[in-house]
Each structure stands twice: as structure tokens, then as C-alpha cells.
Amino acid sequence: MSHKDLNAQLTPVTEYFTTTLGKIFLGDSIQVLKQLDSHSVDLIVTSPPYALLRKKDYGNADEQDYLDWFRPFAKEFQRVLKTSGSLVIDIGGSWLPGTPTRSLYHFKLAIMLVEEVGFHLAQEFFWWNPSKLPSPAEWVNIRRIRVKDAVNTVWWLSKTPWPKANNRRVLQPYSSAMITLFQNGYQAKRRPSGHDISRNFKTDNGAAIPPNLLALPNTDSNSKYLRYCGDEGITPHPARFPAEIPEFFIRMLTDKGDLVLDPFAGSCVTAEVCETLEREWMCSELEELYLRGAIGRFDSDRPYNGKTNARNWYRISRPGVLWSATEEPSKLEQDGGRGYRQRRASAKQKESA
After folding, report:
1. What are the tens digits of pLDDT across the range 145-163?
2. Helix (H, G, I), strand (E, B) or coil at 140
3. CB under 8 Å to 3, separation ≥6 — which residues?
4. In the annotation, is 299 catalytic?
5. Residue 238 a catalytic site member
6. How far apart are CA 243 and CA 272, in angstroms?
7. H/E run at residue 340
8. Which candidate in 48, 49, 236, 242 is catalytic?
9. Low-confidence residues of the chain, pLDDT below 70?
């Protein structure tokens, strides 16, 4: 959902699309929220516009205005959620203008939601996108003074310290090392780290409890949604998150028949997941263009093309895989790369002289 003008007048809300389980609304989500009964929603899972340095087509508030813009939504989230419900926000970070240093806006958002609005931080998650291109290009590709920014923070907040949840809903395959341990056995003892590994550790439960790092590439290129947009000549939403992000939390935090809300719906990924998992759902979006494509997610003539194979999942390489004990490729920039462009321009002038 976009918010191109913080002072723009609210547009009328209209019911855009419905199924037996859910509804999509066209219009400002704050109006949709105000129409909902208090304590009526089991889960809000969404990816709001980020406070980015560079403006995007889908709209985003300036960093300094972001908390003021988000505050009315936060208060409505608190009101409509059931006591046992949760709020899940996928939010990317930002860089300060002209410098290779980070904004704190997404941390300030979490603090505001807890200290001002009254939410509890149940747990922070991190979505690692292995397919993310190196960015920001100036600091990563050109001056080489930062590594690529490939992780989003996902805040899981709740109205009570004890929201309903069950991690058995989101188990993942055991690692090859764990499978070997089951096969060969191990000696129960206290490890050097101080952890006491008991005999119960060897119990094979069929799958592992996942970490709070979600490794999901954003490489969708042939989904039902994209095929529908292509056939209808519709420009796809430029900032879609993979379906497994909302699905992870919908599975862990809701039961069939529960109500899930996405107030910044975009292409309505959350709605498609809810439809598949038999949850009731509501979505709202300000840009009709994105909803024209979103209804393709519910087109029964285009079958779902399958999910990621369980064997083809991502692991993070150890940091030292390519390190050498004797060689380092280049010297450090003593000024942190600040004068890199001037030095490069000067070197090119000398070469051409």
C-alpha cells in the first residue's frame, strides 16, 4: 500500500474483491481499521512502506515523518487485535543520506510500538534474501566499504506476553550433521560452552525447530500472479515479499477459521496464503493498479506452480571459507573510503596524461 502524501485527504473505501473466506478493500487502510470491531482480529501480518532514502513507485514516507505516519495505524492495530493475537511487521532498513551509516527508524518503530502503544516484543526475526543484489551500490560495489544489505527485520509483537503460538507448525528438516548424529550416536556431556547435552538430545522428533532467521530468496518469476499480470498487461507490484514470509507466521500463530488482516496489502500475497490455509482474511490497498493484478492470485484457471523443494533450501556459508592465513587482498582505506572517488578520478587523470 502506498502513502505518497502524508496530508492527503482520505479516499472512500470500496469493496474490491471477495471470496468465501475474505475481502479486498480499495482505499485507505485506516478507514478499514476504524470499521472493524475491537478485539476481532487474530493476526495482522504486513509489510508497510519503508522509510527509504530514495522514493519508490509504491510510495514511502520520509524517515523523519515515518513514526508520525505509522502511529495512527499502530493504535488501531492495538484496538482490533484479540488479546491472544499478534502483529507481524516485515520492514527493511535504510541508510542515512550521503553517508555509509544506517538509519535507526525501524528500531525506533519497534520501541514506539512497545513503550508508547503497549505491544510486547515476542521475538525479532530476520529475513535473509540470498538472491538480493549487492546494495547500496555506492558503498558496496564502488567504494567497497560495506557488505551487501540482504536482511530485513521482521518484528513479532503481541498484546500480551503470552500470545497463542506453536512452533510445531513450522518445523524444518534436520541438518545433515544432525542426521549423522542420530545415526552414529554421541556422548552425553557438558560442552566447553557450558551447555549440558543430555541423552534426550538424541531423540529424533522428525524435524527441527527453526531459528529466527528466515532464508528465503525473492526470485519469483513464473508464479500464478506474474503469469496473470503478464496476460492482462498489468505492471506487477515492485516490492512483493515471498509467500513463505506470511505463511510462516500464519501457520505458527493462527488456527483455521481465524481472521488475518493485511492493511498494506500490495499484491495481496497474505490473502492468497490465507485462502490456501483456510483462514478468514481482509486486505486493504490504496493503489487500484496493484489490486488489478492481485485478483489473479485467486484465478482458478491458473494452477499454483508449487513451492520450494525441501531439499533446495539455503544455508549460510561460514565467514572464513575464503580467508587466507597469509594474504589479504588490499589495504584498508584510512579515511573509511570517504575520498575514494577523488583518488580514483586523480588516478585516471594521471593514466591519461
Report:
1. 999 999 999 999 999 999 9
2. helix
3. 49, 59, 60, 61, 69, 286
4. no
5. no
6. 8
7. helix 340-352
8. 48
9. 1-11, 52-64, 177-178, 181-183, 185-189, 191-203, 301-315, 321-322, 324-327, 329
Active-site annotation holds for 267: no
Q: pLDDT at position 271, please? A: 94
C-alpha cell at 33: 481499521
Residue 60: predicted pLDDT: 45
Q: What are 300's strand-pairing partners?
A: none
Q: Hey, what's the torsion of the CAs at 105, 107, 113, 116, to 10 degrees?
A: -80
Q: Scanning the structure block, which residue is given the C-alpha cell 485527504?
A: 9
DSSP element (H, E) containing 17: strand 14-18
Q: Please count the CA atoms within 13 angstroms of the CA of 133 that sit on its side-chain side.
A: 5
- Between CA 184 and CA 267 the distance in angstroms is 48
pTM listed for this prediction? 0.85
Q: Which of 28, 29, 86, 90 is catalytic?
A: 90
Write the CA distances from 97 to 62, 77, 100, 136, 281, integer angstroms.
Answer: 11, 31, 8, 12, 38
Predicted pLDDT of residue 1? 36
- pLDDT number for residue 326: 67
Catalytic annotation, pick one of 29, 47, 94, 284: 47
Q: Burial of 325 by CB count in 10 Å (0-12 exposed, 13-18 middle, 19+ buried)?
A: exposed
CA distance 263 to 46: 7
Give the torsion sign (CA, 64, 213, 132, 341): positive
